[in-house]
TrEMBL record:
GO terms for biological process: epoxide metabolic process. It holds the Pfam family EHN. Residues 2-75 form the Epoxide hydrolase N-terminal domain. Gene3D superfamilies: alpha/beta hydrolase. SUPFAM superfamilies: alpha/beta-Hydrolases. The lineage of its organism: Eukaryota, Fungi, Dikarya, Ascomycota, Pezizomycotina. Transmembrane segments: none annotated. One of its GO terms (molecular function) is epoxide hydrolase activity. Belongs to the peptidase S33 family. This is Epoxide hydrolase N-terminal domain-containing protein. The active site is at 143 (nucleophile), 276 (proton donor), 340 (proton acceptor).
Amino acid sequence: MGAPLADVKRLAKHWEQSYDWKAAEAKLNELPNFVTEIQCDGFRPLAIHFVHIRSKVKNAIPLLWIHGWPGHFWEGVKIMKPLTEGGDGVQHPAFDLVVPSLPNFGFSEGTRERGFALAQYAETLNKLMLKLGYNEYVTQGGDWGTHISRALAHLFPQYCKATHLSMDAANPPTFLGSPLLAIQHAITPYSKREREGRARTEWFIKEGRGYNLEQSTKPQTLGYALSDSPVACLSWIYEKLHDWTDNYPWTDDDVCTWMSIYWFSTAGPAASTRIYYETNHSNPTPENPRAISRDVLRKYSPGVKLGYSHFPMDLTVLPSTWVRTLGNVVFERDHEDGGHFAAWERPDELVKDLRDMFGKGGALLVALRARMDIRNECRFIC
């Protein structure tokens, strides 16, 4: 029925009385945090927060790591060091890592105009990468990071060269659109992973998707509770941290740090829900030709390579024939455990998948070279 009363009481008491936010703040400040101004076409400029770690390994691959909801940039902290340190740069490549707070999340500024949807999130991140001097880059994401990566593949394929996704979002193959995949789907029995994935997906649609409907239709009403009451905000998000992970052993400090980044966020915790509403109400029109809907994201994107890591306790776990309708899938791996927050729950597995996709064995992007140029307009925030 939702977050248990005993859990919420314990966490709220700890957050109020014994949790050390200053200690958590000090850990956040150890990261190379920056803020820079990005302006999307037709919208006012926004101050965008991001973590930027330059690898010491030559020819490191520029990687844009994109969080979702109810995540934030801190969700990626466990993969930052191993990805940027890499190995020999060939078999185990290193990455230049850019980890932004999405607009309306974390320490990025919030939007005030209506219509800031997937196209604008993608435009913001693409302009950020270009501003940092990366004319070619790859992405990794789950949740909204999946959808924004797909938007980047459709809108900016000249810059976004490949995407690795840890959440599935696709339609079944059709005989008209993908005849070979449709035949394969029709005659090939589901694997154990795919059968269990269907059950998990059906559970989410029937029992776990209420938050999505509310945030996609009436985020303003919900926002009053999220902004006014720490306990409302805690219980709304804690439910997802619990239900969307694979028996992950959350500590009370983990939860409180996670929650504090929402509570102390620049735009406030309610702002993070707007991405659902704006995306749900975004369709191309003569007045807004660059709008992009989720239906468009489920179309084939030529030229941008795709990789997938399937974690069994994610929200939507789909058959391989489905995700292969989206583009040229060059890497795919099934995992025995793990849930929605792959970078937080299973960082070692995610790092290995990225190394295998982009390393010598994958030989994916030998022409991609890191170019670093932090401009003067980027400044430390900590």
